[in-house]
Amino acid sequence: MSTALPTGFAVELDKATRISRDGTLVFGGSPARLLRLNRRAADLLGGGAFTVRDTTSARLARVLLDAGVVHPRPARPQPRSVAIVIPVRDRVDMLARVLRAVRTDPATADVPVVVVDDGSRDGEAVRAVASEHDAEVVRHETSRGPAAARNAGLRATAQEFVTFCDSDTVPLSDWLPPLLAQFDDPCVGLAAPRIVALPEERETRIGAFERTCSPLDLGAAEAPVIPMSKVAYVPSAAIVLRRSAAPGGFAEELRVAEDVDLCMRLHRAGWRLRYVPAAQVAHDHRTDLVRWVARRAFYGSGAALLARRHPGQVPPMHVTGWSLLAVGLLLTRRPAAVAAALGLSTVAGVRLARRMPDADTPVRTAGLLTLAGLFSTAVQLLRAGVRHHWPLALALAISSRRARRLLILWSTVDALAERSRRGSRVDPVTFVALRRLDDLAYGAGVWWGAVRQRTPAPLVPKIAGFRCGRFRHRFRERSECGLAHREP
User: Fold this and answer.
1) Phi and psi for 134 in degrees, rounded to 5?
2) 153 and 164 in contact (C-beta within 8 Å)?
3) Residue 465's pLDDT band (boundaries 50, 70, 90)?
4) Which end of the chain is less packed: N or C, by CB atoms within 10 Å?
5) How far apart, in whole angstroms, are the C-alpha atoms of residue 404 and residue 323?
6) pLDDT above 90 (res 201)
7) Separation of alpha carbons 376 and 318, rounded Å
8) Tens digits of per-residue pLDDT, 345-403?
């Protein structure tokens, strides 16, 4: 199978990407990186977008897409062989709601639908609702879990693309075509919509918090799905999967984080994954306090399972060694330590400036990137203190007044900044309380999972160095979707 992007496939520069005046230096993506382009490549990208016309433009588009500095703009929707799988257990009313949404949308009205009844107490009620909406039913007499239910639906279909929708979702109008369009790229194995909150009949405080802070909602910015990046995974509440990318489907032994595991396996195999917020699916979020906290802890418990299956891919922090040391020294606030941190940062900035002498302003650019690295590390370190590592931070705060003040200050400032960034309507006091409760529950789940799995892996930070990719004159790309890696 060819992996080349088709003629007419276009790409457009990500809004956050920065380009030097001569167009040969590109900084952006997630994780952020610095790319160097030859003159011909720089000219192609000069307008902020270009269309694949030949082998050179196809290779450049592939490199930039994989770096995350551009986004795909497929030529036109292509007809696809697609089926929809809906796993359900007992929630008959929700099943009827999602089936109505599917059948009233012109784009999915005639798409084959398979409902997987995962051990519902009233199997006949499920069958009746499915029959009313012309859906096939596959039944498990006893519950085998969501992963097994989805896999049963995968085996019951033969279409090239399979869409999974949970029973507590409601696909919004015209949600499927933008997702299927991503598969014009033959190396895309999975595409996912944005999961937004389903409106409540009577809004609660937790419901209002979830509207902007649900872990299922990955935001309004499109992105490639890459471990340890801005969008590290997509939830399986709604996804479209290329059958050949994962013919075995989900890992049935996992009752939590099976969606994260699937994303990691696909990425490791060389498939590209896309998050497409232009497509939206509404979700019925939990609003009962006890169930909400329990669900957050449940999500956290999956980190240890993932750490065992994917070593080094789910750290609480991903930072460079120099920045972690510098931030640690700064936090002591001792004159000698602060001086050492400044010296360390200066050395890092000078080394970075030497790596990009062709930047518009090498010293200024290196200085800004160095400060950005310090800020990112500080934020990650402090956030880990109120989330993954809160038991350690709490113990430190009990024994140190300075640590206690810092913890209280950061807990408040971080939550208020998050409230502003997300545009939440929840009052500040409630938002701070719910944000911290969210973190406490998730962190407790991480520790519980680590104890059960007997591994500290999900609590250990990943420390790396700065990498500068050099892409000039020649592009080496994967010979097939599932193998090898591109070399700089």
Assistant:
1) 55, 50
2) yes
3) low
4) N
5) 23
6) no
7) 10
8) 999 999 999 988 888 899 999 999 999 999 999 999 999 999 999 999 999 999 999 89
Looking up tokens 């013919």, which residue turns up?
247
- Find, among 120, 249, 96, the residue nearest to 169 by Cα: 96
Distance CA 109, CA 112 (A): 9
pTM across the whole model: 0.91
Burial per residue of 164-191, b for 16 or more beta-carbon CB atoms within 10 angstroms, e otherwise: bbbbbbbbbeebbebbbbbbbbbbbbbb
What is the DSSP track for 196-218? EEPPPSS--HHHHHHHHH-TT--
The two three-digit tokens of residue 420, written as one number:
């502003």
Residue 461 CA from chain centroid, whole number:
19
How confident is residue 180, by pLDDT bands cut at 50, 70 and 90? very high
Closest CA to 63 of 480, 472, 483: 472
In whole angstroms, what separates CA 5 from the centre of its chain? Answer: 24
pLDDT value at residue 30: 81
**Alpha-helical regions (H) of 36-145:** 39-45, 55-67, 92-104, 123-132
Q: Given the structure tokens 């001569």, which residue do they identify? A: 22
Q: Provide the token pair at 191.
A: 């595409």
Q: What is the pLDDT of residue 476?
A: 38
Q: What is the pLDDT of residues 255-299, one digit of tens each?
A: 999 999 999 999 999 999 999 999 999 999 888 999 999 999 999
CA angle (424, 427, 433) in 5-degree steps? 95
Q: Residue 63 corresponds to which tokens in the numbers above?
A: 């490199």
